[in-house]
Amino acid sequence: MRCRQRWTVSEDGASLAFWDEGEGPVVVMTNGYANSTLYWEHLRQRLRQNYRVIRWDLRGHGRSGAARDPETMTVEGCADDLRRILDAAEVENAVLAGFSFGCQIVLESWRHFPERIEGLIPVLGPCESPFNTLIDPRIGPLIYRFYQGTGPLVWSPLLKLGSRVSRLEMVHGLAQKIGFVGSNVTFKEMEPFYRHLAEIHAPSWYALGLGAQRHSARDILSSIDVPTLVVAGGGDRFSPGELGREIAEAITDSQLTWIEDATHTGLFDAPEIIGEAVEEFLPRVFSENRPITVSTTTGVS
What we know:
Helices cover about 40% and strands about 20% of the residues. By secondary structure, it is an alpha/beta fold. The protein has a 9-stranded mixed β-sheet with strand order 1-2-4-3-5-6-7-8-9, with helices on both faces.
């Protein structure tokens, strides 16, 4: 099955890379903070048999160009980038899936172009201010204070150092022990992510972190009237599962897939559980006579 790499341009003139494969109803996958499209690998392999799957890189990440205007590296700016991806792919309507920080982007998209959204799939992510609940409510704000007080010149070498250190298998094992990475996620699966850290454009990444913390989509959750599948993990230390439960409870036509043992690497921890939930969800979205359902499903990885 042919996968085409394609390009478009952001408002500030930066190049946006996206990948387009499969045929049928469209699912667009939006990455998390500091991520490439790696985390979607299991799910996109599964869905591309029956759907047209589009993945894209945030500015300053992966194959997309660095932001030319850091002031536009906000959640709103990323939602506009997503709209431009839809335009370039000649897609009028799609289901928008977001992982981690990507959840903020797809939820914010509802504010700006709801008429183009068939359904939403927020996976292991928040609707606002991610540093507030990072690791622990007492720790995350302190991390953000340090982050805010430094700057991209400091973070550029730190990202490269983090990439080198992360590629030590003993560090991967430590990340598993403290719950940052799932216990069944192999070093081989995560190594491309660790390598990607060194390639991130630090000014774009830094501006995006500030924008993410200042953003909230909580005020629009109750207005969302398309089917929504929320995936949350009980072991997620970056975006605690209770945040996903709150999102699901605030959206009328929603269902929650709760995976008790899933960490923030849940797309690797529990690919079968997530894949099955998404495959059951999508036909209801694209059905002409879909019923409104509010339900909770639970899986254990």
